[in-house]
Structure to design on (791 residues):
């Protein structure tokens, strides 16, 4: 009896578990009712015209994390550098004699009209500032000492340049350090002089090897010492005439961005968005690559009426040399378009910006919505209708 | 008894993983309809309503519970292997399923008063289709699958007012969900996969009434009717978007399941042989399910016949003498129509029953059948099924022979 019960259990278990094998094929596909079949649809603005809006606008930005610090004046651009060295020895103060104070900057090899004349002055800043949130508009409200603390005139290659600074300024910073008033050290502004016709990029504090350096040679009796520091807070600003809205381009440094929106209300609400591709064609005649000229742009969803209300994750647009087109794709675009499909009132479009917007004053001319149908921005959406 | 009950619960739980694709025909209506018979009756070609038994808890006819002896729990399982031939291809698949669980408690055996509680399958939707294709110049797998089905819980009783008449009735509540998934899997990570799941949930009552006439020695005539049932139908659509899943209520209404009737007869040839036949039907032709524009169902009927041979039913007989041997056949015109053609199936069945101790019996049945046509979209199916059931019994509320 016990053996028989075991046999029963084995039979039951074998029968139930033997059904786990399964190799689905396409057999029976034709027997599915038409309403069961998923409908994949493509919305391609190059095939099916839809309303497209494009516009260039200026996004006033700060450059506290920039790789490069641009300085100079050329082609309508004005660039300034702000530096604040804020760690000094607190044991020197008024003692001894300061033999020299020198500022070192390492050129990055990029700039605008780099062969043009170049010169700048250094002046002490006397009003508080912070690299965080400091923009081109902030320059006007900056207070400066009346005297020029340093001056540079000369040509620039990739070698370090050195600017002799007023030793009184160095003494002031050492005294402030001894007094524990390092927060009162406000640094200096580097301002292009009137004859300057070029802009040069210098490495910023974010590059530990080529960060700006301040060197103070100090002597006290028989003791001579050299104080060198590259601990600093730095930023730069760049300004130019405002962008023309009917001329579509993105530009770093300033930063000029593109607003791009598509009317996708032809897609039924509730559809599942499978892929999104956006095509933007480069106009080589209006493109100027002064800096690294990276062949990528970034696109990000605009979240509201404000131009700086943007989603956190951007999608990369790669330039296709063969077609002269930037192609954007990826999950952030799918997420944005899916949201607009289900809630069309949230469609504020996309913002395109340059890849190194923070540091590189490169300009990418783009064909706008009024351009020829093959050149204007386009969107291609693959979606699945609801069953 | 407790040992068996525990085992059955374990099996029921574990077998939830064992449901895999069967035929796309189950896409239609409320799914592939269950035969509604026990494994013993499948061996008999699915002859069910006139079959009286001391151990086999009839699924189709509550009147047949009057002859049950001992309190019983009965579990049925099956495994199916199907080979489908289409115009240029053929493929195979296996599935397994629980065919029902019933508990019978004979309170007053002499009056035939037996209460039965049961959990039985009514239908199942169970298919998987997978197609490799190019979408938007990207390789993709398009998958369609259906799972779920309707089941019923029942509570009923039988009664034998006179020696030649057995009557019974049960209240049944039908419930379950039919789920259809439509999926597109893109191989590229830059594409979001489509995943839509439509779930149609049903729930509603019906009754089953039956009788068996034993007026002529050796001859049993049985019939049963399960009433038509208006059951609720709630539809929800689940959509998987790139950033969230959304469930939409897409409709609530009532759906009518038509009445089922069975009529059949068995005749005892001496003490060892029994022959039987049965006709059953369910008219789905007026029923519209799911999407009225897409398809309509049709009248379903089944014709069955079978023979059983059992050398002895005496408990004192040897194990070999207490084995039962069966053979049968049935023909069913299903409720599905494809391209204007009724889908029919023909099965040849065989089985045997065996004792396990004094009050417990097992039944094993096999069936081989064919369905459809090579030239229709669902193809020609060759189907092989193995069934097994165990009816575990113990005497409750009764005295064992010799204990009086």
């Amino acid at each position: 009896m016990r053996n028989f019960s075991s046999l029963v259990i084995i039979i039951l278990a074998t029968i139930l578990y033997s059904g786990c094998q399964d190799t689905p094929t396409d057999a029976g596909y034709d027997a599915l009712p038409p309403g069961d079949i998923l409908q994949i649809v493509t919305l391609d603005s190059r095939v099916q015209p839809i309303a497209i809006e494009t516009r260039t606008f200026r996004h006033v930005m700060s450059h506290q994390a920039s790789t490069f610090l641009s300085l100079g004046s050329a082609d309508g651009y004005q660039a300034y550098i702000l530096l604040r060295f804020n760690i000094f020895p607190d044991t020197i103060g008024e003692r001894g004699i300061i033999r020299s104070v020198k500022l070192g900057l390492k050129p990055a090899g990029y700039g605008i009209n780099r062969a043009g004349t170049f010169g700048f002055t250094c002046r002490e800043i006397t009003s508080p500032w912070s690299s965080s949130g400091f923009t081109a508009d902030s320059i006007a409200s900056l207070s400066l000492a009346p005297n020029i603390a340093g001056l540079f005139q000369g040509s620039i290659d990739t070698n370090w340049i050195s600017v002799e600074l007023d030793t009184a300024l160095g003494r002031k910073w050492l005294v402030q350090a001894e007094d524990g008033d390092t927060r009162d050290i406000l640094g200096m502004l580097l301002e292009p002089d009137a004859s300057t016709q070029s802009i040069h990029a210098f490495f910023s504090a974010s590059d530990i090897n080529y960060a700006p350096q301040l060197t103070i040679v100090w002597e006290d009796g028989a003791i001579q010492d050299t104080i060198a520091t590259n601990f600093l807070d730095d930023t730069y600003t760049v300004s130019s005439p405002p962008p023309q809205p009917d001329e579509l381009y993105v530009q770093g440094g300033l930063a000029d961005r593109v607003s791009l929106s598509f009317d996708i209300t032809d897609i039924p609400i509730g559809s599942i968005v499978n892929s999104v591709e956006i095509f933007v064609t480069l106009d080589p005649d209006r493109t100027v690559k002064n800096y690294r000229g990276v062949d990528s742009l970034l696109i990000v969803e605009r979240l509201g009426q404000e131009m700086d209300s943007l989603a956190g994750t951007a999608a990369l647009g790669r330039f296709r040399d063969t077609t002269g087109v930037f192609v954007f794709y990826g999950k952030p675009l799918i997420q944005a378009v899916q949201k607009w499909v289900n809630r069309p009132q949230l469609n504020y479009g996309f913002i395109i910006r340059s890849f190194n917007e923070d540091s590189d004053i490169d300009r990418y001319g783009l064909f706008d919505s009024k351009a020829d149908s093959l050149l204007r921005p386009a969107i291609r959406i693959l979606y699945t209708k609801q069953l | 008894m407790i040992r068996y009950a525990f085992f059955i619960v374990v099996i029921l739980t574990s077998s939830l993983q064992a449901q895999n694709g069967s035929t796309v025909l189950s896409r239609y209506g409320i799914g592939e309809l269950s035969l509604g018979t026990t494994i013993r009756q499948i061996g008999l070609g699915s002859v069910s309503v006139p079959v009286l038994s001391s151990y086999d808890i009839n699924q189709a006819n509550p009147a047949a519970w009057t002859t049950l002896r001992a309190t019983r729990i009965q579990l049925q399982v099956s495994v199916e292997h199907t080979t489908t031939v289409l115009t240029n291809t053929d493929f195979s698949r296996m599935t397994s399923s629980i065919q029902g669980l019933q508990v019978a408690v004979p309170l007053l055996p002499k009056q035939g008063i037996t209460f039965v509680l049961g959990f039985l399958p009514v239908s199942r939707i169970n298919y998987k289709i997978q197609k490799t294709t190019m979408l938007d110049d990207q390789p993709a797998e398009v998958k369609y699958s259906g799972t779920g089905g309707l089941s019923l819980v029942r509570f009923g009783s039988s009664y034998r007012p006179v020696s030649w008449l057995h009557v019974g009735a049960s209240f049944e509540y039908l419930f379950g969900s039919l789920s259809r998934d439509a999926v597109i899997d893109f191989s590229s990570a830059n594409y979001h996969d489509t995943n839509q799941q439509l779930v149609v949930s049903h729930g509603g009552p019906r009754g089953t009434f039956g009788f068996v006439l034993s007026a002529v020695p050796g001859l049993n005539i049985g019939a049963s009717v399960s009433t038509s049932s208006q059951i609720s139908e709630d539809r929800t659509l689940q959509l998987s978007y790139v950033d969230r899943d959304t469930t939409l209520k897409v409709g609530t209404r009532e759906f009518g399941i038509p009445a089922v009737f069975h009529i059949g007869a068995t005749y005892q040839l001496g003490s060892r042989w029994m022959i039987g036949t049965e006709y059953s039907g369910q008219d789905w032709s007026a029923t519209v399910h799911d999407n009225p524009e897409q398809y309509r169902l049709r009248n379903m009927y089944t014709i069955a016949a079978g023979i059983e041979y059992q050398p002895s039913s005496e408990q004192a007989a040897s194990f070999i003498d207490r084995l039962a041997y069966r053979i049968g056949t049935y023909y069913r015109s299903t409720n599905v129509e494809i391209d204007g053609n009724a889908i029919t199936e023909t099965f040849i069945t065989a089985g045997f029953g065996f004792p396990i101790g004094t009050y417990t019996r097992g039944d094993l049945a096999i069936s081989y059948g064919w369905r459809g046509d090579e030239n229709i979209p669902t193809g020609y199916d060759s189907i092989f099924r193995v069934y097994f059931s165990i009816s575990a019994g113990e005497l409750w509320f009764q005295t064992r022979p010799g204990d009086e």
